[in-house]
Amino acid sequence: MTAAERGEQVLAAAVTAFAETGYAATKTDEIARRAGVSQPYVIRLFGTKQQLFIAALHQVCTRIEAVFRGAELDPDGDTSASLKALGRAYEEVFLAERELPLVLLHGIAASADPAIGEHVRARFGGMYELVGELTGADVAEASGFIATGMLLTIMTAMQVAGTDAIPVPWATDILTNLRSATAAEC
């Protein structure tokens, strides 16, 4: 296995570990164990746990951006239809990969750390700007889209939305309302 392949293996193990236990509670020796490498090798590849967490966070944000770029946008440039396409792609692809929204949320939670916060703010802002760039959404439309996406991300993390959802009345109400609003706009 090449060093690059081993680095990807370590990064995948880090995403899984950080998704499960967050930034503060995750140990680099646990990531190393999952990746089948030594803890010093993890540090040699990424420098520090903080840098590894930032790399994992970047991978998650890059995945969101790839999902958005891969969405089938409205060919006529209809902003509302394009936002719906982004939303469907986000829900069907990104939220289905449960570890990814968890790492995103752990990144947001760890933003009080100046180095992590700097990256979270930059990547979150980049995703917001990408929504406007891809769809032509104005500030209100793009911020509404991001707000709804974060609500779904949080609900997915709580396991009350998504493929493994535990049915609870309040979550069912919210999801039904979101689907009704989307259907009414069509």
Q: What does it look like?
A:
The chain has about 190 residues and is an all-alpha fold. The chain has one domain (about 50-185). The chain is about 80% helix and about 0% strand. It has 9 helices and no strands. It has helices at about 5-25, 30-35, 40-45, 50-70, 80-95, 100-110, 115-135, 140-155, 170-185. The protein is globular.
For the structure shown, list the relevant keywords.
9 helices, 186 residues, mainly alpha
Output the number of helix runs: 9
The whole-number mean of residue pLDDT values reads 93
Helix/strand-derived category reads: mainly alpha
Radius of gyration over C-alpha positions, nearest whole angstrom = 18 Å
**What percent strand?**
under 5%
Structural domain count = 1
Instruction: Give the CA-based shape.
Output: globular
Would you count the extended β strands for me?
Answer: 0
Main sheet properties: none
**Succession of helices and strands:** HHHHHHHHH
- Helix proportion of residues, in percent? over 70%
End-to-end Cα distance, whole Å, is 50 Å
Low-confidence region ranges: none
Give the helices and strands, then pairings.
Elements: H1 3-25, H2 28-35, H3 39-46, H4 49-70, H5 79-94, H6 99-109, H7 114-135, H8 139-157, H9 169-185
Helix pairs in contact: 1-2, 1-4, 1-6, 2-3, 4-5, 4-6, 4-7, 5-8, 7-8
How would you sum up this structure in a few lines?
This protein is mainly α. Helix content is 78%, strand content 0%.
